[in-house]
Request: fold
Amino acid sequence: MYQKAVCLLKRYGNTEESKTKYLQEADKCSPPLADEELQTIWNSACKFYKSKILTNPDYEAPEIYNGSKEPVWETPIPFDTLTVPTFPIEAFPPDIRDYAIALAENTQTPVDMAATSILAVTSICMQKKYIINIKPGWKEQPNIFLLCILEPSERKSADLNGTSFKGYRRSKHQHIKSWEIKSLSYLLSGCDQNKTFIFRNLL
Reply:
């Protein structure tokens, strides 16, 4: 109920409306909470709202957030005006680095795009197999979300096909045992064919 009270205060402010909605939520409790306990929780939430939320410079009061004023948007920054660093392809293990470079050369696309696609594949291969302990009480799977942006007909599909994959189960009772890289025809003919299945060793 404390978390619900804080959410209501943040959305509606310390008003009769928020208190009413709080009591309506309290009616759903089983077993029901005593009135004194509910008031203690509400008072504690109000104290947090006043000391932490209202003092946050990024917080917009309900009367402003829910008002009819038009939102003010910042002027977008064009991508071509940004100075971005070179993709650190040398940070990849040798086999993966060679694959990314070969794919980029074969498809005539930036190595950044091939490397980014490989990172996406690697992320999926690692999910549910590793957990990142960011700090005590905060754990995440190593999932990342990536987006390659290029003009039409810039061979995005060719690049993505070169790093796509499929997983399969050996039986309905077993976990996924292997991942296969498909569409490997995009590799340069001179590339070491043993390097085309590098992702099999990621599991």
